[in-house]
Specification:
alpha+beta; 15 helices; globular
Length: 367
């Protein structure tokens, strides 16, 4: 049964989500078109840049991404608490960096009136709260991302019409096991598609970006401790398209937006908005799972189980299976059986697809 997006993306359940968006008819609109011979690989770079820009605008951190030839994956965390702490002016500046907003907002930010009337301030306050809500809305994040890429690609091809097959698909990640499974699934996408043979050669993925950062600046610190700048003043703004007054800026404007770094790793739990693992452990899991899913070495599972799998109580053999078919095995949520059961009760449904997979993957068998 089709469920509304508000039921599938609920911050009361979890702030973590795995998101997928596909090109219309699953055409290779971001890869090489074998019929015409044209190559659209550069559009994958557009998507990565736009993701990083919007992460700096919204209160949404990106933990993992993979941009393929006809779809892309994201693992994100919505930080509602951060948006709550933004001032009214901060929210308005973020919003108007991508969209003009109504004249009252533009005049207020430009300080064209020394003493705004009480009525004007009331209207401004109402708009700020509406924008604040949208800055923590995953649907708005994906709407702005997909619409801007579609406009840019259609302009390049001199065509009109749909670029994406629909809005987007999402899976709630209910616990650390689900987060690790989704991130591994996302970062290994190019390897499973035989587009790369190692994580560091997987272009347009978060794991390749993190490894490249270590290679470029090994003395600058480890991704386990670096926190992306949450300072909003340089990374402001977000989007609207429904209000007639909120018309988007020209296509030259997004290029000037700053880009937010990827979400940091922190196994110590000292950072509230961080991936709850050590980066070295995550790389070990990626390397192990990657070797197992390569076509020429399928089934060559190493004897040594990665420490992170042991700590989270994940069955290694089932984890390898999950790292290749997360979208097929699970429905709108991923997590341990007890967490899926709790989500069933919260959503008032009797069943969530993936319970059997969760029992196999996230419950260690007795020795």
């Amino acid at each position: 049964m089709t469920r509304p997006r508000t039921a599938l993306v609920c911050l009361a359940d979890t702030p973590w989500y795995h998101v997928v968006s596909r090109c219309v008819r699953r055409a290779f609109l971001c890869g090489k078109d074998h019929y015409t011979g044209r190559c659209f690989e550069h559009r994958r770079g557009w998507i990565v840049d736009r993701i990083r820009q919007l992460s700096a605008v919204f209160a949404i951190d990106v933990a993992a991404y993979a941009v393929m030839s006809n779809h892309f994956h994201l693992v994100v965390r919505v930080d509602a608490e951060r948006a709550t702490n933004w001032s009214r002016d901060e929210v308005l500046r973020r919003w108007t960096q991508l969209f003009d907003g109504p004249p009252a907002v533009r005049d207020f930010l430009a300080a064209r009136s020394d003493t705004p009337t009480a009525t004007t301030l009331h209207v401004i306050d109402q708009l700020a709260e509406k924008y604040r809500s949208r800055l923590t809305d995953l649907s708005w994040f994906m709407r702005v991302l997909n619409e801007s890429i579609a406009r840019q690609a259609n302009a390049e091809d001199d065509v009109t019409g749909r670029f994406w097959e629909g809005r987007f698909k999402s899976q709630a990640l209910l616990d650390e096991q689900a987060i690790l499974s989704a991130m591994t699934y996302v970062d290994l996408n190019p390897i499973r598609a035989q587009m790369a043979d190692t994580p560091e050669r997987s272009e347009f993925t978060s794991v390749a970006e993190r490894i490249a950062e270590l290679t470029r600046a090994p003395s600058a610190g480890s991704p386990t401790t670096v926190r992306p700048s949450a300072s909003p003043s340089s990374a402001e703004s977000a989007a609207d398209a429904s209000d007639s007054a909120d018309m988007p800026h020209g296509e030259t404007r997004p290029a000037s937006l700053p880009k937010q770094p990827l979400m940091p790793f922190d196994a110590t739990a000292r950072l509230s908005a961080a991936i709850p693992f050590a980066f070295c452990d995550y790389l070990e899991v990626i390397e192990t799972a990657g070797r197992c899913v390569r076509p020429d070495k399928r089934g060559a599972i190493p004897r040594q189980t990665p420490r992170l799998l042991e700590r989270l109580g994940i069955e290694p053999h089932q984890f390898i299976t999950g790292a290749t078919s997360l979208m097929r095995q699970f429905g709108s949520a991923v997590g341990a059986p007890r967490n899926l059961t709790q989500l069933c009760a919260a959503r008032q449904v009797k069943y969530l697809r993936g319970m059997a997979a969760a029992r196999g993957m996230f419950q260690r068998k007795a020795a």
